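in:
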């Protein structure tokens, strides 16, 4: 089967194994395409320029399909907002965001860890058929995580970011004690999944889990 195509934001930060932007994070073939001029600030926002972003998604989706991609995802969970719009214009099936997992986890009490709490809106959840009151916490705006991934830094302190992610997970379950499952909105967070599961004693799902199932489904013709 052909590769999965990943629509990448125009960023420069490091992408370690586990990050969606590292081909070694996958056990199936992937191809990447950078959406020139569409950066983190264009995606991680409560008030995006939707026509501009969708135009970039469409053009680059068509290019990836022409290169042989059999399905598409994106390098930012906030692009969940465009799930239906992109699916309507993409030549191949689309799974934009780990937030799609929430609907698949029906019956679970899901909480979300996001890159930016102030920018994640009910519209992002509604766009993927998730409850709009899904509880979530974000990484702090003054965190090492934000310095790298939101402010497009050139360096990544993996150990510090892991501690920040675990702290966010602890805050999530403390504020919402009924949670029994965690979903990581952000595609830069999968490297810290094991540490989170160990610290919280809960199952954690990320975009790599979503895309493993999505790609397998493409192979089955659905």
């Amino acid at each position: 089967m052909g590769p999965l195509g990943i629509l990448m934001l125009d960023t420069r930060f490091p992408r370690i194994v586990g990050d969606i932007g590292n081909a070694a994070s996958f056990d199936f073939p992937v191809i990447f395409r950078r959406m020139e001029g569409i950066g983190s600030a264009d995606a991680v926002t409560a008030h995006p320029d939707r026509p501009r972003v969708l135009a970039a998604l469409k053009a680059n989706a068509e290019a990836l399909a022409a290169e042989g991609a059999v399905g598409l995802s994106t390098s930012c969970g906030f692009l969940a907002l465009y799930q239906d719009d992109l699916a309507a214009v993409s030549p191949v099936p689309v799974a934009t965001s780990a937030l799609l997992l929430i609907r698949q986890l029906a019956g679970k009490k899901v909480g979300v860890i996001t890159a930016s709490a102030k920018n994640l809106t009910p519209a992002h959840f509604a766009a993927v058929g998730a409850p709009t009151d899904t509880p979530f916490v974000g990484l702090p705006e003054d965190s090492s995580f934000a310095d790298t991934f939101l402010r497009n830094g050139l360096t990544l302190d993996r150990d510090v970011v892991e501690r920040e992610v675990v702290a966010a997970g602890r805050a999530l379950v403390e504020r919402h004690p009924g949670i029994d499952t965690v979903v990581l909105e952000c595609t830069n967070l999968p490297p810290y999944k094991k540490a989170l599961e160990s610290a919280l004693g809960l199952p954690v799902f990320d975009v790599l889990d979503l895309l493993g199932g999505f790609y397998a489904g493409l192979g089955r013709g659905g």
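note: Residues 158-175 form the longest helix (18 residues).
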